[in-house]
Amino acid sequence: MKNQKQQYVRTLFISLAGLGLAWLMTYGRWELLSQKYAKEFIQPIYNDTEKGCLLDYPKLLKVMNYTDSKAQVFMKASNKSTFLVDFTKNGGSWTMREKINDTQWVCNFTVINSRTGGSAKGIYWYN
pTM score, two decimals? Predict the structure, then answer.
């Protein structure tokens, strides 16, 4: 009975430690990427918001993935809407807009939670 209880406590401890480590690796990575790269996205977000991609400016940015040519950023706007934004680097600058043809653009983001309505798939067409 005592060995069974010790085994249960050990299993519980290992499970919680593993969960804590996974949480730390995920959110810790986001924090490190955000500290290192978030400033690169402030002006591009402002520019693309002025062009109609978003209705509100973000009050929170978390860089989730980052390479030299692509990045994924979690954003929370001041109206509490949340988004996952896919950025690409074009000509040395970041943008969430992608040109489809001469007259149409698409903004690359996914709406997680919207306080103002909008597309659940996050696809907005502009011409």
Answer: 0.69
